[in-house]
Amino acid sequence: MAGRDCGGDCGPGRANEDNARFLLLGALLALYLLGGAAVFSALERPHERQARQRWEERLAGFGRRHNLSRDALRGFLRHFEEAAAAGVRVDGARPRWDFPGAFYFVGTVVSTIGFGMATPATVGGKVFLIGYGLLGCSSTLLFFNLFLERLITGIAHVTRWCGARRPGRRAGRRARSPAGGAAGKPSVRVVLLALGAASLALCCGAAALYAAAEGWGYLDALYFCFVAFSTIGFGDLVSGQQARYDGQGLYRVANFVLLLSGVCCLYSLFNVVSILVRQAVNWALGRAAGAGCRRGRGRGGPPRRNAVGPGRVRSGARGAAEADGSSGARRLSGEMVSMKDLLAANKASLAALQKQLSEAASGRPRRASTPPADDEFSGGVGAFAVMNGRLAETSAGR
Amino acid sequence: MAGRDCGGDCGPGRANEDNARFLLLGALLALYLLGGAAVFSALERPHERQARQRWEERLAGFGRRHNLSRDALRGFLRHFEEAAAAGVRVDGARPRWDFPGAFYFVGTVVSTIGFGMATPATVGGKVFLIGYGLLGCSSTLLFFNLFLERLITGIAHVTRWCGARRPGRRAGRRARSPAGGAAGKPSVRVVLLALGAASLALCCGAAALYAAAEGWGYLDALYFCFVAFSTIGFGDLVSGQQARYDGQGLYRVANFVLLLSGVCCLYSLFNVVSILVRQAVNWALGRAAGAGCRRGRGRGGPPRRNAVGPGRVRSGARGAAEADGSSGARRLSGEMVSMKDLLAANKASLAALQKQLSEAASGRPRRASTPPADDEFSGGVGAFAVMNGRLAETSAGR
Q1: Which of A320, B87, B296, B348 is the most exposed place for a label (fewest CB within 10 A)?
Q2: In what residue span(s) does the Potassium channel domain sit (chains A, B) (predicted)?
Q3: For A313, left (φ over 0), alpha (ψ -120 to 50), or beta?
Q4: Are A393 and B331 in contact, with CB atoms under 8 Å apart?
Q5: ipTM of the complex
Q6: Which residues of A fall within a CB distance of 8 Å from B81?
Q7: Contact B275 A135 (CB under 8 A)
């Protein structure tokens, strides 16, 4: 939509870079989809053919045995399809729209899991769903984001606590990041490891419970956990749909808690992994721009400084640290930067100056969690970063 | 998980505030779910009872007419359920796992729509899905976020262009935000209106196409559009599943484009609406803290300055603007702030100083899109804002 627009609040180089990143990611995703489609088609097609053939044989056999015409059977099955859409199963499933069932349903709506084990069939239900989902999905998105915020704060707390117990290692770390811009913040790697371990443990534990309670195989239960926690929610396997369970109330609560924590964990994990994807795209973009520059030097290609890969940034940061040498040296992020390596040395000392100024003005040391503005915005991606940075709040602006 | 942890990189007041916001939102969501469950249960339960009763009658009638035992019919229907899970429909659905079908499937995986019209049935397919989905969902999340970024940049471009054509109004706006911190950025209201209008137009247009192509009623098609674009994806209605369409190739492309743009639009809309939800939660929190303060003054409640609602912030911003008066006055965001009204006047002039310093150091005017650091972090919510602000990039940190 706005793929080729320049925002105008930035140089044309930055806009080109942003557009190029967006388009490159889109192209890579298209390739990923094509590759995935080929693999799934190869894996699943034989099974589908087999299942269809088996069904045709069974249908014909049943008709022959009971002397039923194909049309009569088709009419009967059409009625069954209609009933199945309203929640009927051969082996007595629980009611869909009693209060616990409806609660499960709205939970799958606001989390966008959408199993589809129950779907509104009335006009009123469908209309209400649209309004209800709009507010509910937005609020749940906010909830997930606040969860992620709390989680990273917790991880920061733990890593600092661990660092404080090993003062030798901590001093070594301090020497590497003397300006405090990144001090006390967990790295992407640490958060990824923590989240990955938590998600894996949760999936494995939940799968064991589901396998026991639902009578699924362990692999099926694991597959259900991933599909549900990632909010894909096919609905081929849905927990809690049988008419009776041992310890029904407890199982319902456990199911709710597991789904909630699983969805929160996998949402956070996806967000952290997407940082790595972004870095990979930036790296590819830097490589492509570098190759284009070497091939098309003097032919009006994009200027090299607008497409810097992590490797080049790293050397820029090192250069800044060496040039500055004082406590003002700071880590630069690995994100794609615009003009950054040009101005790195200036900005490094500026950051120290700003810090001193801020402390002088407020009469107390500045909060460690407040990064320098350029550090923050070099990675200006993402739903909230984008909006916080680029929107004037209406509540103050009116 | 980390709900009660203080990050330690911030005062205890800020941590309390963050925890309170998270817990309040969780409580409000629980109420929202309970209310929604009650409404859906009331709306849908009669229809479910009716459908079950009708099915029981039809089942009994069919058995009587053709002299079939209930057990024989149940066995037959169990076979049909098995076949239906593999994609068989009474009225010849298209193959699920040919290449276009598999492409549609992987599209619903990475976008987390997950209709479930086709689901992997083999062990290999299920295992591959977990790895494929993990990377695919993360990349698509990044794609949505970059789309949102491009979209807001485009809207900023359009609003500035409109402002430039009406110089009188623009001068008036400038006078209201002289520091340039929010100048040229579209407000949440403008983005919400633009996105809401775009989503509505897209849903209505797409519904007209789907209603014509699939033979659904218009309301059903509209309901399908919302369920698909919001990535809920129940799977009760799925486009493109019939064996034949007029202009099949064109319809497939249109279906893909509509789903892609619809999902991007609604994801962006949810994010913008969640800003409003956050403001509402902050307002409620401020009210609650204010009431608690009045009731429990001197009983060790949380200090009032750590729980400021938008109303109070607005007056603080006005006070700062009056106290400063120069071009250094800047809008404060409507977000909940910590220590902000205490230090507002100091920070307002500090922001101007920092800007001058930055321009002096870099030899050119600072980019308008770079906000002052405290403005950025007053609204430190959200997946990416959180991570950009709180994580040290490993690529630079190693």
Answers
A1: B296
A2: 94-151, 201-278
A3: alpha
A4: yes
A5: 0.75
A6: 84, 89-90
A7: no
